């Protein structure tokens, strides 16, 4: 009993560590895009964002896809067995990941020209080729993070994420500043940004190797231990196509926009320069969506091993308790972030990106935060329960809806159609996942909680609308004033939303004591 309690406490500590690390990295991710866009402009931002999904796929697979996969494989075949068995599993996993990474890298490099033509911008070819290199780093980063996470040690993953993102951001901003100052073409500036990202990934790998050696970990080459090679490979392949695809939810939607949004605008009669600018404006929404879902993402990622362990021990009580708490947190965070962003978007847009261009489109995209939070939380829960197939199918269905939605809606509504299709895609995925969870006997049973969250949201929105109404009488439209308005709005909105959540007893005292960070404040 004490052993299980210690395991749970360790998992929750891991949740807090990854939450804080995820928060820092996503802040970096959003923060660098703001000065980057300010340096290179909307067209320069468009160029980078067209290629970023390819690089982003490698980062996500190495951060939340493959490490979770490896920890589950070790849980399936390694725990309770000899060191030789575990070393064979790690050897097979490394060989598999190297083959996987090299295949993706070569595949993307060869298809760089056809892809750039399909995207409507042949100048993107060298940037895509450069992004292909990042997949060669994925196997080694994934293996080390997966081993650490299998041991419930989240510190190395968190440290490497922060270092990787910090160096990446620094190099991107420095390279873009100097290349622009020296008068280089914006596509060259984009290449500099992708190269800087690869340098960041290498830095993350070096940190992991350093921690691996310092902690006394060793990698023993072994292919002879008594565990079926085919079973391990089959499991790795299955998890790659399920957990891997599920982890790519956000980036796949971005990838579809990169593939067909610009070309659809041009084919619809828009001038190329105008289409590039408009796509750059549309891409302002991506860091905002990432920031809105960071807590749900990090919490869900670290929850997988704990729920998986409870499933093995048939501890249904623990599973249902953490499931309800996770979903409740997800609804609170997602609804609050979506509502706040929608109301304050004009000021936030001007504060971050110098002008309010595309505010209406970004408001629609902000609604996605709630549904992405639901999706990511449910993915982690179902992975922990051993249900990995349906989440992957849901992501593919959502991606298909997004692709078709772009094709149909952009012709009618222009760039707004892309935002609507994104919102619809995330909504469908979350609905599919909720119904699937219910079909497995895990109902949320949180109707009262949803009602209370809704009331809290109304309180927050009412206060924000009143604040903006007062501000409207001050006829100032500068970026500085928008910054002040946005920051005041965020503070006021968060304060009243938090007070309402507490006053309406959305969380029980026991639940609040089990939430990382919040429990420290209570104590």
> What low-confidence regions span 5 or more consecutive residues with pLDDT below 50?
none
Distance between the termini: 24 Å
Main sheet properties: none
DSSP strand content? under 5%
Shape: globular
Backbone CA Rg: 23 Å
Helix content: over 70%
- The H/E string reads HHHHHHHHHHHHHHHHHHHH
| Class from secondary-structure proportions | mainly alpha
Total of DSSP H or I helical runs spanning 4+ residues:
20
Q: How many distinct folded domains?
A: 2
Number of strands: 0
Structure report:
This protein is an all-alpha fold. The chain has two domains: 1-247, no CATH class; 252-523, no CATH class. The chain contains 20 helices and no strands. Helix 5 packs parallel to helix 7 (186-214), helix 12 packs antiparallel against helix 13 and helix 12 (316-353) packs antiparallel against helix 18 (479-503). The protein is globular.
